[in-house]
Predict the structure.
Amino acid sequence: MTPALGVGPRSLRNARRAMVDDIADDAGRSGFELEYSQRLAAERLAAFGAQLTGRRRALSRKAPRSLYLHGPVGRGKTWLMDSFYSKLPVRKRRVHFHDFFRSLHAGTHGSTAGNGTMIQKSVDALLADIDVLFFDEFHVHDVGDGMFIARLLRDAAKQRIPLVVTSNYAPDELLPNPLWHEHFVPTIQAIKEMMDIVEISGSSDFRRLVAGAAKPEGPSEGFRSGRIITPGTPTQLGRLGLFAPTQSQSRVLTPTTQPIVVRNSDPDLLWVGFDELCGGLTSPADYLALADSYTTWVIDNVPSPAGSHPALAPAWQRFSNVVDVLHDQDITLFLIGKGPLDWDGAGSGGVLPVDLARIASRLSLLTRYESARPLHSEESAGS
């Protein structure tokens, strides 16, 4: 049990050691040991916590430097942050990248006030009545989102509220699109000035460990119970309790502002085509709104990632947002495609998402259900 932080220098040292030991114990209960870089990050988090709690007890008026934890997918960044968060006895708030931007866009949409005013109100609400803000899955692919992030960082600095951030990207890799990267360089410099950069780069991708082993950053059973199905024969689907909707079941949903034609939307189950879900102007806000209503998603007609046409690049980026949202909301996902659905060996080539490694890692959690029998041959045999 972590002792109360912030009594005196010796107690602070003891509390830091106890915090690291508690995080290590959490790892042991999850079935793994902290790797070297994870332990270093745990020690840095513990020092941050001791300084933050000491500040609250007036031992120091100086705010601790914010922390930016980054590294490859599946290295336990979110797991470490959550373990630390659960033990930190201060006023705190944890937000996820997509949830943050959903709240921002919800605040600005349809408002009679200027967008700048509503954005400021959203940022003010995010920082209200807390000593520290935890920000998970920090990434920037849109120049507009980059401006929101810059506003948040400025306001947090003014109010002396430190941040703990996790990201798959080093600061210099944020907003990688060469058309817009230079616009974000000042914010990158601000991140480096106000945050200690901590890399977590162990050799294990915990998401890819065999069943029963450690998965410190994985979701619970909802997302993991999904399937990647090829080629999607009626027999395959039937064995999983899935039955292709008829045309009469099609309907139009408008989760936020964009109408989406779906094949079926029974209670708790959403069945939609890849083109309809990802080929238009949908956004993470739409996916989050749908995830609130449907705990199981079926996405069919998913194209093969290998050799994708350049015209599909925007759709693949939206697909990566879908996977992010469903993983983080622990939604069961079935992907159906006629061709091979292999994101590990696809390579980006400017067509697939820039964050392909994260998406491939998350989709590796889904069991593959593949048939060597072509779809048309089974249909002929059953007729």
Notes: The two ends are 65 Å apart (CA to CA). The domain at 9-206 is CATH 3.40.50.300 (Rossmann fold).
